Each structure stands twice: as C-alpha cells, then as structure tokens.
C-alpha cells in the first residue's frame, strides 16, 4: 500500500486525507499547529493517523507523495527536506482532480474571485445542473469529489493552490485581474506572481476556454509571454477589437464560440464596476455550459453575495446601510465609491497598510458628504481628507460610528462601511468588523422602531 503524507489538517487537508483513504492509500496527516476539534473527530472516525504540534519527518518522508496545505510556504524546512529527497509535493486540488469525473470551472484573480465563484455556482445551480462549490471559497474539492455525482465543479483558486497543481486542467478557466499581493511568497517578483495566476490555463487545448479581463494591464502584459493554448475569450468594459463579452448599459453582450447572446443584468443586486467584470466572467461561463440567457437573467436577480462585500444590512429612516468590510485596500474602496450613485456617508479606518489615498480623492469629493473614521489611530485619514472640507469625525466604537453616520445622512443617502484598512486594531478580522457594523445597524433600527 502506497503512503501519502498530508501537511496541514484544515479543510483541504482533511478532505484530501479522506479521499486518499478511500482510494486505497496509507494516509498520515501532520500539522505543526493545533487541529480543530471538528477535524480531529473526522480523522479519528476514519481511523486516519494524525499528529499536531510537530512533524515526524521519518513518517512524512516515507510517503510517495506529499499533499500540502496552500498556507505552507516552499521555504518551510519540511518542504525543503521533501524537495531534497525528490518527493513530489502537490496541492489538494491536484490530488482531487485525478478522481473527479465532472468538468471544472475554475476562477482566480487578486480581487473578486469569491464573488465570481459564488455567482457562477449560483447560475449553474439555478439552471438545475449538478454542480459543486469548492476550493478557496471554503470547501475542499476532495470532499466534493468524495460525495460524487457532480457534473460540474466550480472552484475558486488562490495563487497558493495553483502553485502545486501540475496535471490538473480546467475546462473553463477565468482570470479576473492581477494586482500586487502576497509578493513575499514570490521573491517580490511580480512576474512570478503573474505566472502563478496564469496556471489557471495550464494544460489547456483548444477544447478548453480561457476567459480573461482584457482591460487588466497586468494580464495583457504577461499574456503574450505566458502562452495559453486554450480558446481565448476576452471580456471588458473598454471598447476593443475582438472583445467577446462586454457590457452595454445594463446588458452583457456575448459573441464567441458560435454564441450570440444578450443578458439583461438590471435585476442583479451587485454594485460597482468591479462587479460588472465579475458578472461578465460568470455569465460567460454560464453561456459556455449551455445555460439560456433568460435562465441567467432570472438567476442574477436571486443571487446573494458573500457577507461583507457591498452587503446591504438594513435601512433606517430611508437611509441604506452597506457593509463592505472586506474592502481592506484602496482599490476595493474605489470600486465601492464608484458603484454607489446616492450621496454617501463613508465609514473608513482601521490598521493602515501604507495606503496611498490619492486615487480616492476625486470620488470622495464627488460623492461623499461626510466621513466617519473608525479606528484606533485616524490621524493619517484626517491629515489627508481634511483638504476636502468635508465634515469629519472619529470614534473607536462601531455603535457610535453608526449613530454618527445616521446623524450626517438623510433619507435617500447611503452609509457605507468600506474601511480601506485592516481590521486588527479594533476587531479580530474583517468578518468581526462587518458583523459588528450590521449588529449596530440592527440595534439602531430597533431603538427607533
């Protein structure tokens, strides 16, 4: 019996362990950290040996193959030792892909991949297809393959997952954008990060489809150098020759691969220019798998995005409150401000990551009527945005931030939490911040009821 070692006992590691066991492998799971009780129970119930808080190297290096968690860098000593011993190191996605009989729709990009993945899954599921949701969105592909009976797998892929995929092939691969991120894992070389993202199109032939954002400068920069053999399907908002999918008003116009379709997006709840790109990509994938435009239109109207991404969380006295806590960088805030048409009271702040706010200035001057700073240290925000002459206040309390925002707003306005900063100064993470904001809105609503 061949042995497989699995490094990391989170969602992907445990999913891979359970799948490997059913395929007849001798499985050993090792995690340098602690394993959550849920995953311990799953491993114990399956009688799969595991360890936590250490790596027993003789056990790991006895494996014919190592499946590693995407969070473990190649520089980790346990990985370096495996490389020295010529033991293949793969991702859970690579392993699971070997045993899946369905087709893969795979999505990557620095920003927007979760929204696009969830929307694509929703469009396929609403059309009645047997479809699974997996990958970086929170569920292991291995676990879904183990369940069986799926015709399609919609998979969100991070660059870390892509890095250890070799034989895997997407039937439809989507690349949304490339902006600098996680460069510490790529020797601070943008071309290495871009090459990682382009692995979404690896092993393709003309029978597979590569959907890419033609408006993205980094994609265009590296596309020529990184050869893609799949059938190219471009999408974008800017007029360009040969554009396969584009927005015209509130309609996605598609013309490629003998497909000619118009999809009305007016019922979609998604806000902002970045979501137009996400929608074009998802609609393109849905058309490729044969879903009719009228089915897509109906499903767009029933889509609910993941929490904390331009998520409506309530209305008080005609004022809409929107939770965009996931917007932890300036670019994401730009898209939020750009996409909202009503006057905005902007809730911003947190742990600054060296932000340059200058790109936001024109939008703030055009659309924002007041700024509420919610952070431990708001001095940089005050220093920069004081030039706008807008009303600015600060607080370290989310309930006070919501109350102050309501005081600045009037019926028809939007209060937007779009922080541009990390959450770690006052909150555990962006989810904690978003939930606290939503709870404060609900509390204000009940107080006024």
- Total tally of structural domains: 3
Q: List low-pLDDT spans.
A: none
Q: pLDDT average, as an integer?
A: 94
Annotation, overall tally of beta strands = 20
Q: How big is the Rg?
A: 23 Å
CATH first level of the largest domain: Alpha Beta
Query: Would you tell me the structural class of the helices and strands?
Result: alpha/beta
Strand order of the largest sheet: 7-8-6-9-10-11-12-13-14
Fill in the CATH topology of the largest domain: UDP-N-acetylmuramoyl-L-alanine:D-glutamate ligase
Give the CATH H-level superfamily of the largest domain: Mur-like, catalytic domain
Largest sheet: 9 strands, mixed
Q: How would the global form be characterised? A: globular
Helix content: 25-40%
N-end to C-end Cα span = 66 Å
The number of helices is 17
CATH architecture of the largest domain: 3-Layer(aba) Sandwich
Give the percentage of residues in beta strands. 15-25%
Function: Cell wall formation. Catalyzes the addition of glutamate to the nucleotide precursor UDP-N-acetylmuramoyl-L-alanine (UMA).
EC number: 6.3.2.9
Main location: cytoplasm
Keywords: ATP-binding, Cell cycle, Cell division, Cell shape, Cell wall biogenesis/degradation, Cytoplasm, Ligase, Nucleotide-binding, Peptidoglycan synthesis
């Amino acid at each position: 019996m061949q042995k497989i070692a699995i490094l990391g006992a989170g969602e992907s590691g445990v999913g891979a362990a359970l799948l490997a066991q059913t395929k007849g492998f001798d499985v050993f799971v090792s995690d340098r950290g602690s394993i959550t009780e849920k995953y311990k129970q799953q491993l114990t119930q399956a009688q799969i040996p595991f360890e936590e808080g250490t790596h027993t190297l003789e056990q790991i290096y006895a494996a014919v193959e190592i499946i590693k968690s995407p969070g473990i860098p190649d520089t980790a000593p346990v990985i370096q030792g495996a490389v020295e011993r010529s033991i293949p190191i793969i991702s859970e996605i690579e392993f699971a892909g070997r045993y899946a009989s369905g087709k893969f729709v795979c999505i990557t990009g620095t920003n927007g991949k979760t929204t696009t993945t969830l929307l694509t899954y929703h469009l396929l599921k609403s059309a009645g297809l047997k479809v699974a949701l997996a990958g970086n969105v929170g569920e292991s592909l291995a676990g879904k393959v183990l369940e069986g009976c799926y015709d399609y797998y919609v998979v969100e892929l991070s660059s870390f997952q892509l890095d250890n995929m070799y034989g895997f092939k997407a039937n439809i691969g989507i690349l949304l954008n490339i902006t600098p991120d996680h460069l510490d894992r790529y020797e601070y070389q943008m071309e290495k990060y871009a090459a990682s993202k382009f692995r979404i199109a690896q092993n393709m032939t003309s029978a597979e489809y590569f959907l890419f954002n033609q408006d993205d400068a980094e994609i265009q920069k590296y596309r020529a150098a990184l050869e893609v053999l799949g059938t190219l399907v471009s999408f974008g908002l800017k007029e360009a020759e040969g554009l396969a999918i584009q927005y015209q008003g509130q309609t996605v116009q598609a013309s490629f691969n003998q497909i000619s379709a118009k999809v009305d997006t007016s019922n979609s709840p998604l806000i902002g220019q970045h979501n137009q790109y996400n929608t074009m990509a998802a609609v393109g994938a849905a058309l490729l798998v044969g879903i009719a435009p009228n089915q897509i239109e109906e499903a767009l109207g029933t889509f609910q995005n993941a929490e904390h991404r331009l998520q409506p969380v309530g209305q008080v006295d005609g004022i809409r409150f929107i939770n965009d806590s996931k917007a932890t960088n300036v670019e994401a805030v730009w898209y939020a401000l750009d996409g909202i048409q009503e006057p905005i009271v902007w809730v911003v702040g947190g742990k600054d990551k060296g932000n340059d706010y200058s790109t936001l200035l024109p939008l703030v001057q055009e659309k924002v009527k007041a700024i509420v700073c919610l952070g431990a240290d708001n001095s940089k925000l005050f220093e920069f945005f004081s030039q706008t002459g807008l009303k600015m206040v600060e607080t370290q309390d989310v309930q006070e931030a919501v109350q102050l925002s309501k005081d600045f707003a009037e019926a028809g306005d939007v209060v937007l939490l779009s922080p541009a900063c990390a959450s770690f100064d006052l909150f555990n993470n962006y989810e904690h911040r978003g939930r606290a904001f939503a709870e404060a809105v609900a509390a204000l609503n009940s107080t006024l009821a």
